[in-house]
Amino acid sequence: MKLGAFSVSLTVKDLQASKEFYEKLGFSSLGGNVEHNYLIMKNENCIIGLFQGMFDKNILTFNPGWNENAENIDSFTDVRALQKELKEKGIKIMKEVDESTEGPAYFTVEDPDGNAILVDQHR
Questions:
Q1: Which of 3, 41, 107, 120 has minimal Cβ neighbours within 10 Å of its Cβ?
Q2: Torsion angle of C-alpha atoms 56, 62, 64, 66, degrees rounded to 10
Q3: What are the residues facing 60 on neighbouring strands?
Q4: Which residues of 44-77 are buried (b: 16+ CB within 10 A; e: fewer)?
Q5: Buried b (16+ CB within 10 A) or exposed e, 19-38
Q6: Cβ atoms 79, 64 nearer than 8 A
Q7: CATH number for the domain harbouring residue 106
Q8: CA distances to 3, 27, 32, 108 from 117, in Å
Q9: Residue 70: what pLDDT?
Q10: 108: domain range?
Q11: Beta strands 5-12 and 59-63: pairing type?
């Protein structure tokens, strides 16, 4: 199963303080917008998202159709096909994507310990 680029989305209390902290660890901004309360940061192949006031807990994030530089890749498994495969394997989908649609969409699942997993396709 190809889930796409992986990152950890962190809920932060102070976006600027978190940005400065992760810069000291060697991360630099890859995307996002401070004015919109989020930044995507990268250190080599490690990607983190910093999100202030957007959700309650940290999230594991996968982006079908993207590589680690948020660049489109030619061949990928659509988010709807991934959702269907997981449902067939008995995974409960918390927030489903409408399988009759096309293009950008997402679904969410939780692992056995309640960790949120977002599969978010941007194209």
A1: 3
A2: 100
A3: 8, 117
A4: eeebbbbbbeeeeebbbbbbbbbebeeeeeeebe
A5: beebeeeebeebebeeeeeb
A6: yes
A7: 3.10.180.10
A8: 11, 23, 20, 6
A9: 86
A10: 5-121
A11: antiparallel
**Residue at 35: amino acid letter:** E
pLDDT of residue 51: 97
Domain count, the chain: 1
Only one residue has tokens 């000291």, namely 24
What does the pLDDT profile of the chain (123 residues) look like in tens digits?
899 999 999 999 999 999 999 999 999 999 999 999 999 999 999 999 999 999 999 999 999 999 988 899 999 999 999 999 999 999 999 999 999 999 999 999 999 999 999 999 999
Radius of gyration of the chain (CA): 15
Distance CA(66)–CA(19), nearest Å, equals: 23
Rounded Cα distance between 110 and 39, Å, is 24
* Three-state secondary-structure class, residue 69: coil
Q: Tokens for 88? A: 């067939």
